[in-house]
Fold:
Amino acid sequence: MNDAERLTHLEERYAHLQRHSLEQDKVMLGLSEALTKLQQDLAALRGQRAGGSEGDDLPAERPPHY
Structure:
C-alpha cells in the first residue's frame, strides 16, 4: 500500500467516524429529551398523588364478584 492509498483509506475511516459521531449525538439528544419528559411526567404524577388522599378514588362498595 503506497502513501496515497494509505491516506485515502485514513480519510475514508475519518469520514465514517465523523458521521458515526454525529449520529450518536442525535441519539443522545433524543434520549436526553425523552428522559427530561419522563422526569416531568413523574413529577406531575407524584404531585397528583400528594395532592389527594390515596383512598379517595376507590369505590365504597364491594365489586360484584364478592
Q: What stands out?
A: The mean pLDDT is 89.
